[in-house]
């Protein structure tokens, strides 16, 4: 059983409606990543979902706590949500750096993956800001400074390159509408890419495994055509098994 902690992919929206002289405010709460969560909520996986607003206070503070999981996936949650719990930001107390915790847990054999989005990697206006955190050493990619988004409303198609993570993923990939510009580390392996930029990169960190997926798993970057594509859940179930230590590392094409 692969034990997965999936963190992020939630937000609230507040809107001001102005109708002539009068105005009123509405708000709503939203979650994304339902297709990926569904793909991992099945035999062989035990998936725990931690929305962004809960992660601020509830994400594990120690390697021992995090060791309840085999795989941790971040999706669209910025570094401040892990660095600034209320006891630090509001009360001025010291607390463990939970990004150090992820680094140490991964080095000891955990599997960590980051999925793209407006609050992943560097993110919109550089606000996710992982380039300046301990996770910059853990991830199998180099992040660029500043806003790293590439918006492709015309659609960008990726193609795979033969690692067993992509076993069962067949045919032409549907288009994605944007992604993060990243550069794979020399010792890592890109197993899916656009014309120039990588989409899916895998690597090793200490005794653990790491993964970077440069696009989103829900709208707007991942349209319904992509998330309902039969290759989507196959790729992610294989990727999570790989992160958990299953199968060959496969960081060279000869070992794929």
Structural summary, described in words:
- The chain is of the alpha/beta class and 256 residues long.
- The protein has a single domain, classed as Rossmann fold.
- The chain has nine helices and 14 strands.
- It has helices at 34-40, 52-58, 63-66, 80-83, 86-89, 98-107, 135-138, 224-227, 231-243, and strands at residues 2-8, 10-19, 22-31, 45-50, 71-75, 111-115, 141-143, 149-156, 159-160, 176-180, 182-184, 189-193, 198-205, 208-213.
- The protein has an eight-stranded mixed beta sheet with strand order 4-1-5-6-14-13-12-9.
- α1 (34-40) packs across α9.
- The protein is globular and about 65 Å long.
- It starts with a strand and ends in a 13-residue tail after the last helix.
Write the layout of secondary structure elements.
Layout (H helix, E strand, L loop, with lengths): L1 E7 L1 E10 L2 E10 L2 H7 L4 E6 L1 H7 L4 H4 L4 E5 L4 H4 L2 H4 L8 H10 L3 E5 L19 H4 L2 E3 L5 E8 L2 E2 L15 E5 L1 E3 L4 E5 L4 E8 L2 E6 L10 H4 L3 H13 L13
Parallel strand pairs: 1-4, 1-5, 5-6, 6-14
Antiparallel strand pairs: 2-3, 7-11, 8-10, 9-12, 12-13, 13-14
CATH class: Alpha Beta
| Low-confidence blocks of residues | none
The count of β-strands is 14
| Total domain units | 1
Shape: globular
Distance between the termini: 24 Å
Topology pattern, helix = H, strand = E: EEEHEHHEHHHEHEEEEEEEEHH
Query: Averaging pLDDT over every residue, what do you get?
Result: 96
Number of helices: 9
In CATH terms, what is the fold-level topology?
Rossmann fold
Main sheet characteristics: 8 strands, mixed
What would CATH call the homologous superfamily? Class I glutamine amidotransferase (GATase) domain
Query: Radius of gyration over alpha carbons?
Result: 18 Å
Strand content: 25-35%
- Side by side, the strands of the main sheet go 4-1-5-6-14-13-12-9
In the CATH hierarchy, the architecture is 3-Layer(aba) Sandwich
- Structural class call reads alpha/beta
Helix percent band: 10-25%
């Amino acid at each position: 059983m692969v034990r997965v902690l999936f963190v992020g992919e939630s937000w609230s929206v507040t809107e001001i409606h102005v109708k002539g002289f009068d105005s009123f405010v509405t708000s709503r709460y939203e979650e994304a990543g339902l297709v990926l969560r569904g793909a991992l909520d099945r035999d062989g996986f035990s998936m725990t979902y931690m929305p962004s607003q809960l992660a601020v206070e509830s994400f594990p503070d120690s390697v021992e706590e995090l060791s309840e999981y085999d795989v941790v996936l971040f999706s669209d949650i910025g570094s401040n949500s892990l660095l600034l719990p209320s006891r630090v930001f509001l009360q001025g107390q010291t607390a463990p750096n939970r990004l150090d915790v992820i680094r140490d847990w991964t080095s000891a054999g955990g599997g960590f993956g980051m999925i793209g989005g407006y609050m992943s990697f560097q993110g919109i206006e550089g606000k996710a800001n992982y380039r300046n955190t301990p996770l910059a050493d853990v991830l199998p990619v180099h992040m660029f400074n500043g806003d790293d988004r590439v918006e492709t409303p015309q659609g960008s198609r990726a193609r795979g390159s033969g690692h067993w993570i992509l076993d069962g993923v067949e045919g032409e990939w549907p288009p994605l509408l944007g992604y993060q510009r990243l550069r794979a580390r020399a010792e890592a392996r890109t197993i899916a890419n656009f014309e120039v930029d990588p989409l899916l990169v895998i690597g090793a960190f200490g005794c653990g495994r790491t993964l970077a997926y440069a696009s989103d798993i829900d709208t707007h970057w991942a349209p319904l055509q992509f998330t309902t594509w039969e290759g989507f859940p196959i790729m992610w179930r294989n990727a999570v098994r790989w992160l958990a230590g299953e199968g060959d590392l496969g960081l060279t094409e000869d070992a794929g």
